[in-house]
Structure formats: C-alpha cells, structure tokens
Amino acid sequence: MTTTIQPRLTQVFRFVRCSYADGVAELVYAFDHGEELIERVRFPHAPALPASHKTAFERALKLLHLIAGVSYYKAGVPPKIELADGPLDDATADLLDALYLHGLAEFAYRNGLDLRGRIAFPRGGVAQPQAPVLNLPKRTLVPIGGGKDSLVAVEAIKSIGGEATAVWVGNSELIAACAERTGLPTLNMQRELAPQLFDLNRLGAWNGHIPVTAVNSAILAVAAILYGYDSIAFANERSASAATLEYEGQLVNHQWSKGYAFEQSLGDWLHAQVAADLDYCSLLRPYSELAITRTFAKLTPYFDAFSSCNRNFRILGPKPADRWCGQCPKCHFVFLALAPFLPKPRLLQIFGRNLLDDDSQAAGFDALLEYQDHKPFECVGEGAEARAAMYALSQRPEWQEDALVARFRSEILPQLSVAELALEPWLVPSAEHRIPARLQAALAFFA
Amino acid sequence: MKFGGTSVATLPRWQNIRELVASRRAEGARVLVVVSALTGITDALKHMCAQEDKGKRVEAAKAIAQRHYDLLDHMQLAVPDTLATRLTDLAKLADEGPAVLGELAWAALVQAHGELMSSALGAAFLSHSGLPTQWVDARECLAAVALPNQNERTKLLSAMVEAKPDPALNARLAEQGDVFITQGFIARESQGRTVLLGRGGSDTSASYFGALLKAQRVEIWTDVAGMFTANPRQVPGARLLQRLDYEEAQEIASTGAKVLHPRCLSPLREPRVPMLIKDTNRPELEGTVIGPEVREHAPSVKAISARKGLTLVSMESVGMWQQVGFLADVFAQFKQHGLSVDLIGSAETNVTVSLDPTENLLDSDAIAALASDLAKVCRVKVIAPCAAITLVGRGMRSMLHTLSGVLAEFGQLRVHMISQSSNNLNLTFVVDENVVDDLLPHLHELLIAAGALRTDDSALFGPSWQAIYGSGEVPVPAASWWRTTERQRLLEFGAKATPRYVYHLPTVRQQARELKTLAAVDRLHYAVKANTHPAILKALAEEGFGFECVSPGEMKAVMAAVPESVPLLFTPNFAPRKDYEWALTTRATISLDALYQLESWGELFRGREIVLRVDLGRGLGHHEKVRTGGSGSKFGLPVELIDTFLRLADTHGVIVRGLHAHLGSGILDESHWGEVYGQLASLAERIGSVAFLDIGGGLGVPSHPGEARLDIAALDRVLRGVKAAYPHYQLWMEPGRYLVADAGVLLTRVTQQKGKGSWRYLGVDTGMNSLIRPALYEAWHEIVNLTRLDEPATGLFQVVGPICESGDVLGTDRRLPEPEEGDVMLIAQAGAYGKVMSSPYNMRDEAEEIIIE
To answer: Are A353 and B363 a contacting pair at CB < 8 A?
Structure first.
C-alpha cells in the first residue's frame, strides 16, 4: 500500500486534470499532496471527434471530471476543494455545489456529518459563451439499468419508431441481458475507479451512497457528443423527487440525482454550455411508480430477464432467486407495485415466491408503507403509493388472505383514511417534465 | 420399433436403424418401423400453416422438399415415386391454402406430410440396402374414435384411437412381407379425413400398432436409455430404471419424465404388450422394460419427480363441505373459469386444490375472477408458486416407515399439501417452488440412504445417468488405506487393545493437498474442532494451513502444536466476555456474530479489525443438527441487522475486515459455495473496509459406497467464476471434516451376539461413548470385520456398543461375515468428530489414539 494518508484527516480535495485520448478519458484527483487518484472511463469503438464538436466535448469532459470527483471527495470530505485550472463560472459552481450537498445528503446523514457550509467549489471564473447548435443526429441514448423503468422507456421510444441505443456503464450480466432483450443497438462504457480508492477505504475512508446517476449522466453527455446523439432519455419517475427523510432541517433524498431539480439544472447547463441541441431528460418524469408498473405489466417478454433488486447479482442464474433476493426494499416495492396489474400466478412466477405471504418480510413492507418507519434509502416509490397498492390488494380475494395483506387489513388499514388510498389518482400523469418535442409522442405509450 | 425425428434425419442414423431392424429380423421377428418426421420438419410445416401469404407457403414447401432431397442425395438414392407423390401433394396444399378443406383439416393434412415423407424415404432406403420393406399407410390401420368431449380442434389435432388386437391386420401384413415402415402421429377419422394424434403422437402410434398387432413388444428408440429415478438434469446421480410396470411408468411419465408421453402406455396394458425404451446411440444399455408386473420385488420407491409452477387454491369454510352439492358448486366455478384441477387435499374445514401453469392461469384474470366468485361462499387463499414433489412406487404405503428421514426433510419446509391416491402408487408433497432445485438431489440421496429406493437391487436399477452420460471419466475411488496397505498393522493394533482410534497422516496430507488445488482460495484454515490431535495439527501447519478455533482451549492446543507464524481464527459462538478478552491478547483474528458483543463490550474491540459472521438466511447439510444457517440456527448475524452492526462498529472504531458465512456440514453440491461466496461479495460491496470473504467449510465427505464425491475441480471452477467477478476480495475457507474424516478409523472388538426374533445384534466393546455421530446425527459409518475382511458377508446385524442406552447403535442392518468373539471390527471415517466428541459416559475406558506417520 503506497498511500499513507489518513483519509478522514485530509484538508484539500484537488481536481488535478482530465484528458481524453483513443476512447479513454482520464480523470485525475488527489487529496492534499498525496498520490494521484486516476479514474478511467472507456468509450468503446470511439469515432474520431469532428473539429466542430471539440469545444462541446471538452466542456462535457470537464463536467464529467467535476461530477465523478464525488466518489473520491467523499472518502475524506476535506474542508477545501481546489481546481488546478482555475475557478468555475457561477452557473457551473452552483450545479456542483448543489450536487455535492444534496447528492451526498444520505451519505452525510448515515455518517453523522453535516456538509452544509463545507462544500464550496471555487467560483468567480469567466462565464462561458452560449453553446451553439451542433446539429446532432436525431437519436437517443437510453440508459438501461436492468429494472423495469428503463425497459418501459425503451418500449415507449420504440413505440414511436424513435431511433435509440441502449446504453449502460459498467459490467453487469443482468443489464447486458436486458439490453439485448430490447433489440436495440447497445453501447457499454466502462468506469474504472482509481484502485487507490480501495486502499483509502481500508484506511477508514468515509463510505456511503453517492449520486451515481449524476456520474452516469455526465458520462452519457460525453458519449452523446462523441458518438452523436441529440438526446439522453433517463427513466426517472416522479417519486424520485420525493425526500426520503428530513434530518436536522435538511431534506435527505436517496435518489436526489434522479430527481427533477437535478434534471433541470443539468439539462439547462448542457444547453447553455455544451450544445444547444443536446437534450437531457427523464421520459418517465410525469409518472408515478404505479403508472410505470402498470405499463410494464404489459411487457411480458422482459419478465424473465429484468430485476430491480439491489443485491446487484453479478452472476446470473436461471432461477428467479438468482435475480431477486426477495429481502431488499427494491424487491418489496416492485413486487407490491406490480401486484395490482398482473395476474397473481404470473407475478409469483417472476419472483419465484410470494413476498406478501411471508411474515418475516413484515418490517420491510412496513417501511415502504411508512408505517412505524421512514421510507427506505432506496429508489422506491412514495409511501402513499405503496399504501394505495396494498389497499388495492386488500380488496382482492386472491390476495387478501396472504399473511401481510391480511395484516394490513386488520392492523394498518383501520388507521388510514380509505379516501386517500385510491389507485387511480396515481395513474394520472403530471405536466412537469422537460421531454423534448421530438419524443413527446412516446408518452402515449403510458395511456 | 419407433424412431424419433433426430433418428431419421441423417444417413448414419438410417444406417443405424437398418442395423437394428436387421438384428431383430435375425432373431426371427417381423418388424414394423414407426417413424417421426425429420427433425424440424413438423415445426416447418406448422410454420407454413400459420403463413397467410401463398407465395411464402410455396417457398416453405420447397425448402421442406429440399431437406428430403438433400438426405436422399446423401444416401445416393433417386427420389422414389412414393416420396415424389407426397411432395407434389404438399406443394398443392401449400398452393391452395386452407380454403378448400377448412383450416383445421388442412393443417392436419399438411402436418401429416412430415411422417408420410420420412416413411416413404425410409422405405426406399431400407429396401435399397437389402431389407425389402413395405410402406404402410398408418391411416389405413388407425381409426380415430369420436369422443364426447371433443371439439373440432381436438378431433382433428389430438385424436384418439381405440386399438384392439386385430388378427385380420396381422394376416394382411403377413402376406406382404417381414419388414414394414409406417408413420407415427397420424390416423384417419370416420369421415376419411387425416387427423393428428397430438403431443407424444409418434410413441402413441407405436403403442397403437403394438396393441393392434399384439406385438411381441414395442421398442421406443430415442436419445436416452430409458426412464430414470429422477430428472437427470436435476439429479445427475439418478439411476436408470430397468423394470417398471405400466402403472408405475405411467405415473412417472405423468409426474415429470419427458422420455415418454403418459398416454402412450394405456393401449398396451390390456393386450399386455411390453414396451422397451432404448438409446439409439447406446444400444448396449439395457434400457427400461415396461410391462405387466411378473416378478416379486421388495417394495421400493422407483422415482422422485418435481413439477413446478403450480398454483394452489385453498378454500376454508366451517361445516359447509358436508352440505349436498356444495363441493359440486365449488368445482363448477373452476370449470367456469377454464381452470383444470389436478391435486386435491381436504380436511373437515378446508379443501385445497392445485392448478397447473397454463396460459389461462398466468396471463388472464381467471384466478382473480375465480377467487372473487369463491369468496362468496368460503375464505380463499391463492398460494403460489408451488411445486409438487412426487415419490412413485407400487405399494407406497408399505414403505412409509422407511421415509422418516425424507419426512423430516419436509418438516423443515412449508408443505402446503400432501396427496396420496388409493391406487397406492404415489405420495405427493406440495412445497414452495424455490426450494425444489436444491431439495430434489438431496431427497434422492436420502431415499437411497434410507433404503427406500433400493438401488442395491440390480435387477430394478441400472447405472446412474452420470455414469452413462456424464462428462468425463467417473473416477473409481481408490481403496481405503485401511483396506490395503495398513490392514495388517491395524489388525495388530486391534489385537493388542481396543477401543483405539488410528489416524493415517498420509491421508490427511493428501486431502490437504487436494484442497490446495483450489486456485481461487487465498487461505485455508483447518477447523480444528473436527480433530485436535497434535500430530494432525502439525501436519496441516506444514501443509500451510491456518487454524480456526472456537474456544480458548482449542486455541491453546493449536498454539502449543504449531509455529507462531501460523494464522489463527477465533470464531466462537455465545462465548463469555472473558474468552474474547483473552483472544484479543493473541494473534488470532476474531469473528463476531451478534450485535450484543459490540453493544455491551464495544470498547473491548476499539481499533481492532474483526470478521463479521453473517447468517444468509438458510441452512444446508446432512442433518438438522449440523445446519448452521437460517433463523432456526443460533449462528451468525441476520443480514437485515448488518447495517445496525456497522453503525455500532463505527461508533467503537471497529473495522470489519472480513465477512464470514457457513451454511452447515456435509454439503456435496459445489454450487452452494459459489452462491454463498457471491452473496457475501455483494454484501461486502456495501462495506468499504472488507478485504476478505470467508465462505466457511462444510465440504461433504460421502459415506455410502457409490455416493458421488465432492468434485473439487468443479468447485474450483465455481469459485474462480465468482472470484473473477469480485477480484478485490481475498477468499478464505475453513474445511474441517473433509481433511480428517477418511484419515481415521475406530478399532473395536466383538464381545457378544444376541438373536431377538429375526434381529441379530453384534456387540462390540465401545459405542456412543467413543463415537456419538450415529446416535446424534444418524450418521452412517462403514463397519467391517477386519479379521474376516475377505469372508462372504452372510448375516444381517445390528452393530451395538456396551452403553446402557437404546440409542447405542453404531450401525443398523449391516451385512457382515459370521463373527466370533474377539474379532477386530473397524468403523471407518472416524477421523472427524470422533474422539473430540467422546465422553466418559458409563465410565467405560476411553479410546486411545494412535498415529500412522
């Protein structure tokens, strides 16, 4: 081990430099005067970059450098941030200050830290001129996560004949299998964390959740300029904007970088500083989890391939238990949210077991319902949404004798107001989204 | 003789058919060959039927014709007229489409061409190669009968034939020759239209012909040697079933075996025509004979099978079941919603039925609608996904007493329903589907171990699937050291004094070296609780092993025997605080497995690196008492408490350096460690400080002769696969019994004999005081009379010790030579958990320990 730094005692986090050559971006960071931490992001079969896109590419790469730094910054959370190539313009500094503060809020909460007032990217740099229109090809990068949401987004775009590529970052057999199932062309970027990060972890670095969607978004922004795409369509749904809990006056949202606030600020920033015709949006933003599960329930071909389980199985087997751990909040939530929309035997076939007829899962479902607990730190729907789904099941004879549904009826339901438990309001889309005109027709897929 | 699609698709396979037919002719038999269509042709014809575009249909017909031309080309034969006619007919059918004949009749006729063409081609080939063969149109012989429940579709596409012996047909064929070829899958109905026999149709055709001709036998030539005691894909150790009666075979086919469609046996039952299933590629294998039961056998379970995807509907009501017509009304609901009931179980207040996984069930609202209707008259619960595990064997009820181990296994699970019908052929348990894949091989082993599946009867049971079709050589296990090189020395030891444990260090070293071939494993620790003899500890230290101890006593024994550089693990369970305090003064890596230790003694561990032992929520192993995972076990921290543990660790500055899980003992399926390893790795990813994963031990050592050994090479592959996905974690293991079990034997001497009714007891001079495993775990140890090792084993004995406990039995129903007082008896595999678990109970002399270097 060459690093001798005590990560929690570091004073400065430095953005050293970033570069790109032959399909590999190198992002370099350091703590204090310690060893350089070099992350590499690999873009496969990268084409040569046209001169007209050079500035846009450099701006996107710089953003990636700034955003991906969050993985390293959090190891020490030092009081000072330094940039080797000078201060940021205010818009960029605002974006990053907000991302580091809110994106690390859960991390801070779990580690008992307060980051307010601690994160300040050097600012006051010269504002960049408005980015031009690059006439990017009219096609979309759709990130695939292996779960239901991105598959719904893919099918929505396919339904209007939109040209799209299924894209993901990292090695995942599950995602690769799902991406293949979509029938779209695929693009797989690799992110290689600096190996010294593992050493820092062993030396007692702070550890916890980072806003990984922001990092992936920045990688896709670079990819969009490099390969030529005019849009990046994530599959973040409405409830991603809802906070998980409030802690000493700060809202903590596990999925902040999947929320609308970040989508807006990153989308605006890309328009202003990278390419006026590069759209960044979430196709599922108008919808609740329940509206999405209802749509997904029609996509039978994915049933034996997808998984939202956060156990992140790296080695897949043919059995449902090889894709769904059945214990985590994601398994609980997806099971519950699909249940009102699928024939019961089909749902149970997907999961290989009945999570709602298992007493030992009571605490997990209670948390989803926000009953005696707060919502879990996971990408799951809102408590009221889970309650609506559970209420719907409690009214169905084929479900109501199952252990946890019966428990809901006898123990939880009497404390709730039935008027607030209807499923239908959740199926109504909201108007809040920034889906570009070219893709808006895809929303009909959810009707 | 019936041959399937792959058997008729190539020239070499036809040459094979020719050889087989010729050999039957040589035996003096007249032969009727029934063939399927060439592989892929029936699907191509179906596809053509679904094609609405005429041009594409004609194209498809041409492609199908080409397949046959190609094969003929290969046979160097011209297109025979019989085939040319068929091809012309097919082209015409493709051209005109369904309009003239009607959709279903047209489709039936189109699909029938697969067999019509293959049989015409076959007749030409066989005749040309010196076996004059008559082509017979099956439709002239098989007349479909109209059944009351049939609609047009089932009438045309899954027809039934009533096949009674027809001497006139026999006479007609006899006039024509000795070898015939005809089509499977097709027949003709009363209006003269061609009909299909549906799934399993070709085998059924063969049976119909067998019955019509009252054949000597029906031979089904296929790609597997017959029926097995279990699905070989789930249980590679499944044994070939060499003899079955019709009912058993039908039950096995109905509950899972794919080799035969259950319907094809019933035509043969009345005319008592036997059926023989044979492997086309391996004609030397005996195959499975299915016939009327003639010979008497001891009752035996014949097969175990599993059907998955079942949905149960449980209906609960008080006192209603007695009312006239109530059940009829309930079942009418199932009919109304198009759901067909399979198994039924009932109690006074509950009726539970199972539904098979049909499309109607999975993709329509049928179950919701059914539940709504049923909810009006009773409480309904829909339970899924379930699997039915069925034991099949004639006289099942008379075998119940042998099934206690199997029933105990089910006792660990949620059994939703048990069903046994009055025909006494089966016993079915409905359980949660997710347990089946692991359970089935285990039950198969248990049935053999319990003597319920009498694989010792070589008339009934053939070789295992693994032995016939398994990849690679099945290694013949080397004869044990005590049988060969050391036998004489052991006899001398035994003659001097007994009881004595003898440990063979070369075997310990050999086992250790075998485990060292596991390239993925970074560090091996010997779990010393299995055997703490200093010579064994020294030998394993020399082999580079670390040591895993569970008490200060074990630690002190190890520290006294091995060099100071050797790594130690301290993994106690419910140990007092002082044990941890002491262990912290040593070099040992300490593992914690509860919140309590940090909650109550957190400061003790400040700044220390520890291993967290987690409970992954399930246990495995050969006996309930050796399982160490699952809520019913006292070991490990449940996964859901890990976050709480980590917060406590952080509070006390404790660093979680390793994660450890151990599922149990005696596990023979290498994939389990891969699963544990993968699960630990995915947990470790949430914890930055983890550097190694300890997947425990529990490597099984088979005890019964013929039981498959753990495949170390396969285990290595499994582990390397996981390691490739998680290269940043070191991998540790903690084998115990695997290293020492086979290295130790217990010597004892015959004291007395006793007869009680038909039972014979053979007394030896030590028992559960020296070796408690048989009494505690029902462990099976091989027992031999070392003095008379070469004499024939003629008597059946209960081998018992001198302890005043009725449980002091070392082995039941053992075949041994007639013993004499003073004979030296040897109890094998006593190197692990033997001496270490012995007790002074009854104040009998303790066994001394001897080392063979």
So the answer is: no
Helix (H, G, I), strand (E, B) or coil at B731: strand
Best A313, A315, A410 residue to mutate vs chain B (most B CBs within 10 Å): A315
Name the residue among A11, A392, B715 with its Cα closest to residue B723. B715
Report, in this order, helix, strand and coil percent for chain B, each rounded to 5. 40, 25, 40
The pLDDT mean for chain A works out to 91
pLDDT of residue B620: 46
- B207-223: average pLDDT: 93
Q: Which residues of B touch A343 (CB under 8 A)?
A: 361-368
Q: How many angstroms from the chain centroid is the CA of residue A64? A: 16
Q: Work out whether the CA dihedral A126, A132, A134, A140 comes out positive or negative.
A: positive
User: What DSSP letter does each residue of B206-236 carry, written as one string?
Assistant: HHHHHHHTT-S-EEEEESSSS-BSS-TTT-T
Whether pLDDT at A3 is above 50: no
Q: What DSSP string describes B830-845?
A: -SSSSGGG---GGGPP
Q: Cβ–Cβ of A315/B725 closer than 8 Å?
A: yes
CB contact under 8 A, B374 and A399: no
Q: How far does CA A123 lie from the centroid of its chain? A: 27
CA distances to B9, B16, B80 from B72, rounded to whole Å, are 11, 16, 9
Phi first, then psi: what are they for A270, rounded to 5°? -65, -45
Q: pLDDT band at residue B398, thresholds of 50, 70 and 90?
A: confident
CA dist., res. B532 & res. B528, Å (int): 6
Could you tell me how many CB contacts below 8 A there are between chain A and chain B? 107
* CA atoms of B832 and B726, how far apart (whole Å): 33
Q: How far apart are CA B524 and CA B516, in angstroms?
A: 8
Q: State the pairing for strand pair B179-183/B133-135.
A: parallel
Measure the CA–CA gap between B240 and B257, rounded to whole angstroms.
Answer: 12
DSSP of B301-363: --EEEEEEEEEEEEEE-SS-TTSTTHHHHHHHHHHHTT--EEEEEE-SSEEEEEE---HHHHH
Q: Report the sign of the C-alpha dihedral through residues A258, A264, A267, A272, in that order.
A: negative
> Residues B522, B701, B698, B452: is their CA dihedral positive or negative?
positive
Summarised one tens digit per residue, pLDDT across range B536-563 is 999 999 999 999 999 999 999 999 999 9
pLDDT at position A2 is 42
**Tokens 């399926």 belong to residue:** B669
pLDDT at A378: 65
Alpha carbons B553 and B583: distance in angstroms, whole number: 11
What CA–CA distances, in Å, run from B564 to B212, B334, B555, B560?
83, 73, 12, 9
Closest to B362 (Cβ–Cβ): which among A205, A320, A345? Answer: A345
**Nearest CB partner across the interface for A313, out of B309, B372, B682:** B682
- Quick check: B582 contacting A, CB < 8 Å? no
Q: Hey, is A141 helix, strand or coil?
A: strand
Helix (H, G, I), strand (E, B) or coil at B581: helix
B804 as an active site residue: the answer is yes
Q: What are phi and psi of A374, to 5 degrees?
A: -90, 165
Tell me the C-alpha distance between B319 and B332, whole Å: 19
Burial A92-113 (b: 16+ CB within 10 A, else e): bbebbbebbbbbbbbbbbbbeb
Higher pLDDT, A246 or A64: A64
Measured in degrees and rounded to the nearest 5, phi and psi for residue B812 equal: -110, 150
Q: Count Cβ atoms within 10 A of the Cβ of residue B157 and give its class: 0-12 exposed, 13-18 middle, 19 or more buried.
A: middle
Instruction: Provide the whole-model pTM.
Output: 0.70
- Give the helix/strand (H/E) hosting A30: strand A24-31
Q: Looking at residue B543, what is its pLDDT?
A: 96
CB A166 within 8 A of CB A184: yes
| Greatest mean pLDDT range, A253-267, B156-170, B283-297 | A253-267
Q: State mean pLDDT over A159-185.
A: 92
